[in-house]
């Protein structure tokens, strides 16, 4: 944005005026070029009202103005007096100061050369025109990868931002997340990562929620983000500190060509509490490249990196860059100064954190480096702010066009020349442009907004963005999903999953945005009503309980409550609000702890941790051979290599039934299948010839060691014993068809619903199969039936099930093969094909016919022929999250029983359909319960419910006819009773009309009585079915005199039905109330009479 005096002029006039102004600026540099000692500190520390600011501003560095469509470079060849220059600058201090803090980079890098010019020109609304096209985001990323490829690093694609197999983190928050098993020494020997020594990539990261949480900082400054790309390089027990530091310096200075004299290196200065010495090795390595004054020690907070509360960690060294230069900026390192920023973190992964006070050495030392792509791009593109780079510029421009708001100017809190409104607007631009990237990448990788865990974090992010967009920028509803298109367009070339999931992404955002808008409307209505009530009591503080209700029940953010309260002169009791929040968190923690303790073995864990895996390897204990896990009906012998005591979590040489309830047994080889790929582990028995008997409850795997989780039932087991391994093969025979037909189900869901169906999870055990998949809506009964029919056709076809282990590259070439997105597969990999032979597919992988069969990568146990499944039924189809459906299905006898039960219920319905309605009515309720509780086909159950509903409708219609015929009789009876009440001088009349729950018919009686005797308080009572103990309805009508005296119709109804928890309402003179169940209508009538008599007697006196 140019100075105001350059705006709205003709091109010719603008040129003359701007050139003249530019000459003045150029003269300033020349006049003051010999006085560079005046200013050596950051301009951000100087007040804009101080005259010396302008001296400092000019002397800090040569400047290039950005954001102009026609740029003119002016020579440094004229001189003017400083006083006249200062007067000129002060007259335009707002524009220039704005340039210092946000729009001007004192030194812009162009391929390593410093731009030593001033550029001025006409204004443009596009901020992308000022981007250095030599260092685009794409080029910065690719240059990094190419550099490490030259250092023999393998490229490993980014893992999904939604961790598949790591419950310790909500999102991938660092590049090393997917390599965690490598650092821990727990990677499976069959995994391609097992032999990985060096790697590099650009990892999609989200830091929002958990230990690394930048959410609340986003928008307040120009460099925090919730989503970012982390450029990373790794060494796995290969090179260490010397190479890592040397290559970092080489890339930064020789390739990216950032100037050495602006670099500062930090290293870990030690921590006495942890017993860790300073990292003098890293310090000495940096001193080869940088002077001692720019190699700085820091403590655990800044230079000891940890991924989470537990997990791999270690000392780190960081590179920081001073944007200003020509000064000593060491005091500004790690001070959150936007001009002295960290650009690269190099972690020396040496430890594993097991608790807040426990660090243990890792089996081997590794290197984990991370450099924020957006941040380094800002340096190479000559931008003070990440939001001015091409990572964000297109989004911000699009957002401005969508909203029509004034354009983005990069203002932040603390800019003294900006109004609060301007700062808030630019904050909104940053919030929305950051958050839309987070949502798009998270949704593409399978996350969905929800009310817990990562889904809750995403919902907060989306609502925060929508709120800023609509309330601050004036965006219309639906703008956020439109903005998602720009993210997908920019990144789909690097991350193709974005384009593939585009429709799903946009639909979820649209739904969530709409739901939030409705929620805001409800919250605003509730809050306005609350403030009106408080005003009547002359109160100006909104209770924390009410703020918490808005937050917890209505989803109304606290800051929005505070904002609305402030607008009407209220404050919020945030202390009380926090107390409610703390109680909720404590309740959640207690519930989680209770859930964990409810697990197998009372919460006892027999999983191998990092140290135990390392101990086994140091002891040269071989990993478990499991080649026989797919064999059936064998009882091989195996040798006990080690035993883990579940109570002490220590290795032991022996265990007996008296002192160890749960143990983990490691054998040299095993026929047991260990839990993986959604299939539960085998169970069975381990026996010794000496009489020891151990019941195998579960089987798990850790770094190639298979742990048999056992309960010791008899005798003693010792390391070195030979055991007979007896798998429960009957149980496995129940599991195998469920696993094979999970694959077949997956195939047929895609055939019926479309190719956009993607697997999101599965569970296979002996009772059922459960399959989660992406789909936008509930399946129709017809669709479920078609899926069942398709799956059963595979059973009837008697297809062979082929399994073979082949190279991963060969497998991925097979036409029609399905793999789970983001899953890491071993190489070679096992392929399961239902129908054709895997060998034939490997020989001619591109044949079209292979797409007609289920073909998947899988390491589970399977059938040999589809007819072994016998039958198949889908028993449940539900939503588990937005856009994610879950199907539960049965095979073999369980499926046949479900089909049989469905047929029985269908025949029972046929009997009801043909029986007299008067005989059927008492049976409807029981029949409904039977259908609801029955484990039958999910395609049949809705049809049975519809049929039962049709019978119920007929009964209701018949009853209405009967009641309509009776209404005249009941009107006559009520009038007769009313006449008698008047003659007897009764104060009211309570009358049983016996017309069911038909309010329309009942009101005919009420109105007839009111017409005949307008001064008589009247209540009509009617049962759903006389004598049934079911619902009861009371309808009351009062004369004006009774209401004026203090009796209301709703009071009367509620008093009569009070023991049965009535619900109802109405006007003071007419109301109705209903109790869902009432076993004594006589008491209702007597209570109503007594209540009215008492009240009317009080009135009369």
Can I get a quick summary?
With 1101 residues, this protein is α+β, with helices and mostly antiparallel strands.
Please state the oligomeric state of the protein chains shown: single chain
Output mean pLDDT.
84
Query: What summary fits the major beta sheet?
Result: 9 strands, mixed
* Poorly predicted sequence stretches spanning 5 or more consecutive residues: 1-131, 592-604
Label the structural class: alpha+beta
Characterization of this structure:
Strands 5, 6, 7, 8, 9, 10, 11, 12 and 13 form a 9-stranded mixed sheet that branches. Strands 16-19-22-21-20-24 form a 6-stranded antiparallel β-barrel. The chain has a 5-stranded mixed sheet with strand order 32-33-34-36-35, with helices on both faces. Helix 8 (280-286) links the parallel strand 8 (263-268) and strand 9 (295-298). The longest helix has 43 residues, at 941-983. Helix 7 (241-255) packs parallel to helix 8 (280-286). It is globular, with a radius of gyration of 38 Å. Helix content is 40%, strand content 19%. The chain is of the alpha+beta class and 1101 residues long. The protein is built from 32 helices and 36 strands. The model is unreliable at 1-131 and 592-604 (pLDDT under 50).
Write the layout of secondary structure elements.
Elements: H1 11-31, H2 52-60, E1 72-73, H3 82-91, H4 93-103, E2 109-110, E3 113-114, E4 119-120, H5 137-149, E5 154-155, H6 180-184, E6 198-206, E7 227-236, H7 241-255, E8 263-268, H8 280-286, E9 295-298, H9 300-303, E10 304-306, E11 311-322, E12 340-355, E13 358-372, H10 373-380, H11 393-403, H12 420-444, H13 453-472, H14 479-491, H15 497-500, H16 502-536, E14 541-542, H17 544-552, H18 558-567, E15 571-572, H19 574-597, H20 610-618, E16 637-645, E17 651-652, E18 654-656, E19 662-667, E20 684-687, E21 693-702, E22 705-714, E23 716-718, E24 722-727, H21 729-753, E25 759-764, E26 769-774, H22 781-796, E27 801-806, H23 808-812, E28 829-834, H24 838-843, E29 854-857, E30 872-881, E31 884-891, H25 892-914, H26 917-920, H27 924-933, H28 941-983, E32 989-992, H29 999-1012, E33 1018-1023, E34 1032-1037, H30 1040-1045, H31 1049-1057, E35 1063-1066, E36 1070-1075, H32 1081-1100
Parallel strand pairs: 5-6, 8-9, 14-15, 32-33
Antiparallel strand pairs: 1-4, 2-3, 6-7, 7-13, 8-11, 10-11, 11-12, 12-13, 16-17, 16-19, 16-24, 18-23, 19-22, 20-21, 20-24, 21-22, 25-26, 26-31, 27-28, 28-29, 30-31, 33-34, 34-36, 35-36
């Amino acid at each position: 944005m140019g100075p105001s005096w350059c705006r709205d002029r003709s091109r010719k006039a603008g040129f003359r005026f701007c050139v003249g102004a530019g000459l003045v600026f150029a003269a300033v540099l020349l006049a003051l070029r010999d006085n560079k000692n005046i200013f050596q500190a950051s301009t951000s520390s100087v007040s804009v009202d101080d005259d010396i600011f302008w001296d400092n501003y000019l002397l800090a560095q040569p400047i290039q103005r950005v954001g102009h469509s026609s740029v003119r470079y002016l020579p440094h060849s004229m001189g003017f007096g400083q006083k006249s220059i200062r007067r000129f600058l002060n007259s335009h201090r707002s524009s220039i100061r704005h340039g210092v803090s946000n729009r001007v980079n004192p030194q812009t890098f162009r391929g390593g050369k410093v731009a030593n010019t001033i550029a001025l020109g006409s204004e443009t609304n596009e901020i992308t025109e000022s981007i250095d096209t030599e260092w685009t985001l794409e080029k910065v990323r690719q240059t990094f990868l190419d550099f490490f490829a030259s250092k023999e690093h393998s490229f490993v694609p980014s893992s999904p931002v939604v961790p598949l197999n790591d419950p310790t983190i909500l999102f991938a928050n660092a590049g090393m997340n997917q390599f965690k098993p490598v650092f821990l020494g727990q990677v499976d020997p069959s995994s391609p990562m097992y032999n990985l020594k060096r790697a590099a990539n650009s990892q999609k990261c989200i830091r929002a929620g958990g230990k690394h949480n930048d959410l609340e900082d986003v928008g307040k400054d120009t460099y925090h983000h919730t989503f970012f790309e982390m450029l990373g390089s790794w060494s796995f027990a290969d090179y260490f500190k010397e190479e890592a530091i040397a290559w970092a310096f080489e890339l930064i200075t020789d390739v990216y060509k950032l100037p050495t004299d602006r670099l500062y290196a930090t290293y870990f200065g030690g921590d006495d509490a942890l017993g860790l010495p300073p990292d003098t090795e890293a310090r000495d390595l940096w001193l080869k490249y940088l002077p001692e004054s720019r190699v700085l020690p820091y403590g655990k907070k800044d230079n000891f990196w940890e991924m989470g509360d537990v997990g791999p960690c270690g000392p780190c060294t960081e590179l920081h860059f001073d944007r200003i230069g020509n000064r000593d900026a060491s005091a500004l390192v790690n001070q959150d100064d936007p001009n002295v920023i960290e650009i690269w973190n190099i972690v020396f992964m040496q430890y594993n954190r097991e608790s807040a006070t426990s660090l243990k050495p890792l089996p081997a030392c590794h290197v984990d480096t991370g450099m924020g792509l957006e941040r380094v791009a800002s340096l190479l593109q000559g931008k003070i702010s990440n939001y001015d780079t091409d990572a964000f510029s297109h989004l911000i421009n699009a957002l401005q066009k969508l909203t029509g708001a004034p354009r983005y100017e990069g203002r932040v809190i603390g800019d003294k020349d900006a109004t609060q409104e301007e700062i808030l607007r630019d904050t909104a631009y940053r919030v929305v442009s950051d958050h839309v990237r987070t949502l798009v990448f998270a949704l593409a990788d399978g996350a969905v907004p929800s009310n817990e865990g990562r889904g809750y974090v995403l919902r907060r992010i989306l609502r925060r963005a929508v709120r800023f967009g609509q309330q601050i920028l004036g965006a219309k509803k639906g703008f956020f999903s439109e903005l998602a298109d720009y993210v997908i367009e920019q990144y789909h070339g690097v991350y193709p999953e974005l384009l593939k999931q585009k429709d799903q992404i946009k639909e979820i955002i649209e739904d969530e945005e709409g739901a939030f808008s409705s929620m805001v409307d409800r919250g605003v209505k509730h809050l306005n009503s609350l403030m009106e009530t408080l005003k009547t009591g002359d109160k100006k503080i909104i209770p924390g309980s009410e703020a918490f209700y808005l937050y917890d029940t209505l989803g109304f953010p606290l800051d929005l409550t505070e904002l609305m309260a402030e607008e009407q002169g209220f404050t919020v009791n945030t202390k009380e609000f926090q107390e409610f929040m703390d109680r909720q968190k404590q309740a959640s923690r207690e519930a989680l702890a209770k859930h964990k303790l409810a697990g197998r073995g009372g919460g006892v864990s027999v999983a191998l941790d990092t140290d135990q895996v390392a101990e086994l390897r140091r002891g040269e204990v071989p990993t478990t051979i499991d080649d026989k896990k797919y064999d059936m009906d064998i009882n091989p012998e195996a040798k006990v290599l080690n035993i883990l005591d579940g109570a002490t979590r220590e290795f032991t040489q022996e265990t007996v039934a008296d002192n160890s309830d749960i143990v983990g047994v490691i054998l040299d080889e095993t026929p047991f299948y260990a839990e993986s790929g959604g299939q539960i582990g085998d169970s069975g028995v381990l026996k010794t010839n000496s009489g020891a008997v151990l019941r195998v409850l579960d089987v798990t795997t850790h770094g190639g060691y298979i742990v048999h989780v056992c309960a010791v039932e008899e005798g003693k087991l010792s390391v070195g014993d030979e055991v007979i391994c007896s798998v429960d093969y009957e149980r496995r025979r129940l599991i195998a068809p469920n696993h094979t037909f999970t694959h077949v189900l997956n195939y047929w869901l895609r055939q019926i619903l479309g190719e956009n169906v993607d697997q999101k999870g599965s569970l296979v055990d002996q009772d059922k199969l459960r399959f989660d998949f992406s789909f936008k809506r509930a399946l129709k009964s017809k669709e479920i039936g078609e899926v069942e029919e398709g799956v059963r056709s595979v059973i009837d076809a008697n297809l062979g099930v082929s399994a073979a282990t082949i190279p991963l590259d060969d497998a991925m070439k097979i036409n029609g093969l399905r793999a789970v997105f983001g899953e890491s597969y071993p190489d070679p990999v096992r392929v399961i094909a239902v129908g054709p032979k895997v060998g034939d597919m490997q020989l001619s992988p591109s044949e079209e016919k292979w797409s007609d069969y289920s073909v998947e990568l899988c390491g589970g146990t399977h059938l040999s022929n589809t007819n072994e499944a016998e039958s198949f039924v889908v028993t449940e189809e539900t939503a588990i999250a937005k856009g994610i459906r879950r199907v539960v299905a049965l095979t073999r006898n369980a499926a046949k029983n479900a089909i049989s039960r469905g047929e029985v219920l269908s025949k029972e319905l046929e009997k009801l359909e043909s029986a007299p309605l008067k005989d059927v009515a008492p049976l409807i309720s029981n029949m409904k319960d039977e259908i609801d509780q029955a484990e039958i086909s999910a395609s049949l159950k809705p049809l049975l419910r519809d049929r039962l509903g049709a019978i119920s409708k007929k009964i209701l219609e018949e009853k209405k006819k009967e009641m309509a015929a009776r209404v005249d009789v009941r009107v006559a009876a009520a009038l007769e009773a009313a006449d008698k009440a008047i003659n007897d001088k009764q104060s009211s009349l309570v009358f049983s009309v016996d017309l069911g729950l038909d309010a329309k018919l009942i009101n005919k009686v009420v109105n007839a009585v009111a017409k005949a005797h307008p001064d008589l308080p009247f209540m009509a009572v009617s049962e759903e079915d006389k004598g049934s103990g079911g619902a009861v309805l009371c309808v009351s009508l009062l004369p004006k005199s009774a209401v004026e005296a203090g009796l209301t119709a709703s009071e009367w109804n509620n008093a009569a039905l009070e023991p049965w928890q009535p619900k109802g309402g109405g006007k003071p003179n007419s109301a109705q109330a209903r109790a869902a169940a009432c076993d004594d209508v006589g008491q209702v009538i007597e209570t109503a009479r007594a209540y009215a008599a008492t009240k009317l007697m009080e009135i009369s006196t």
